[in-house]
Amino acid sequence: MVKYNFNAGPCVLPRPAIEAAIDAIRDFDGTGIGVLEISHRTPGWERVMAETEQLWRDLLGIPDDYAVLFLGGGASTQFFEVPANLLKKKAAYLQTGVWAKKAIKEAKFYGEVEVVASSEDKNYTYVPKGYTIPADADYFHITTNNTIYGTEIHTDISSPVTLVADMSSDIMSRPVDVRKYGLIYGGAQKNVGPAGVAFVIVRKDLLGSSGRPLPTMVNYSTFIGAEARDNSMFNTPPVFPIYVMYQTLKWVKSLGGVEAMYKINRQKADMLYGEIDRNPLFTGTAVPEDRSIMNVCFVMAPGHEALEGEFMNFAKERGMVGIKGHRSVGGFRASIYNACPVEAVEALVKCMQDFESSKK
Ligand SMILES: *Cc1c(COP(=O)(O)O)cnc(C)c1O
Fold first, then answer.
1. Lowest CB count within 10 Å: 86, 168, 244, 275, which one?
2. Is residue 275 within 8 Å of 349, Cβ to Cβ?
């Protein structure tokens, strides 16, 4: 049976990236030695590092005064590395979910934190609006896509202070105006690769001004090399996750880049939300204007709650994988990241329609 992978992360990766990674484990770059067994100081590997950075720059239009870093520890490590490097006195945070809340918790180790607004009152089913960003904050932190709740900030907002964004689950899903941000970070395992590497895009002039001494591995400057090929190479980088990320970004480029990805993502999301809104058995959980194009959350409509387990089995029998909603939301969540093919969304929509028919 064909499996349709809707896992929230780690999640579906482009098939060509997987195939290239398998080949490279056997033989990296025609050397006769696999990518897991070479030194990260070999010229072949330095070329992969440089090309991966260049793909990031080309795909997102990252200006030269920004560094692009690949670090271990996942997005959760960035929750404290960001304030360690940027927080002098006070930081402002928008609380749009559990990930934002975790980032807030870590920032408090380094200074004052002002939560400008929170949507916790309605279990994070919307993105707060009309808040004021304090002008005396060192930075304002947002989570652009709330993976668990299926809400998303769809535009690059304007901020009077340095804007910092956790883009773990919507990076490369749409064009981004990088200039509007001082720092963008995330774990790779939602849209740009496997678990094990995080990306940090940071405007270099922001670094070195926190006034606090930093352990070497926490200081972003440590990973900015004297020459481009030394970037992210202070110690052994997460070689294999970076290799799969390299192949994943080549795939994004081959499809036409982030503009093309956005078009396909919009199409997939519209198709699935269209069915959720049409089908009387289901209802979406996020307010329509803030609906994520990456994570689509829905539950059984009022009056049909008892059918939840039955639909789960029905979907499983038709090859749907990973559609169980996060325990804090319940119901269902279909994560339809870049690498999730249109056919998978079509299959899920058909499955929802067939389930409706079976109840008539
Ligand atoms: C998954 C996720 C994280 C956590 O990433 P890790 O790499 O597991 O630490 C943080 N923020 C968001 C928005 C996420 O989706």
1. 275
2. yes
Domain that holds residue 299: 256-358
Which atom of ligand 1 is nearest the CA belonging to 167? 13
Supply the mean pLDDT for the chain.
97
Q: Are 128 and 178 in contact (CB under 8 A)?
A: no
Band of pLDDT at residue 227, cut at 50, 70 and 90: confident
pLDDT of residue 226: 82
Spatial separation of the C-alpha atoms in residues 44 and 190, rounded to whole Å:
27
The CATH number covering residue 134 comes to 3.40.640.10
Among the candidates 254, 285, 311, a domain finishes at 254
Contacts 24+ apart (CB under 8 A), 166-170: 166/75, 166/78, 166/99, 166/100, 166/103, 166/141, 166/142, 168/9, 168/75, 168/99, 169/8, 169/9, 169/145, 169/294, 169/295, 169/335, 169/337, 170/144, 170/145, 170/292, 170/293, 170/294
Which of 7, 93, 96, 99 should be mutated for ligand 1, with most atoms under 8 A from CB? 99
- Measured over the CA atoms of residue 285, residue 288, residue 290 and residue 296, the dihedral's sign is positive
For the cut 90, the answer to whether the pLDDT of residue 35 exceeds it is yes
| 121-170 residue pLDDT tens | 999 999 999 999 999 999 999 999 999 999 999 999 999 999 999 999 99
Which of 232, 254, 276 is a domain's end point? Answer: 254
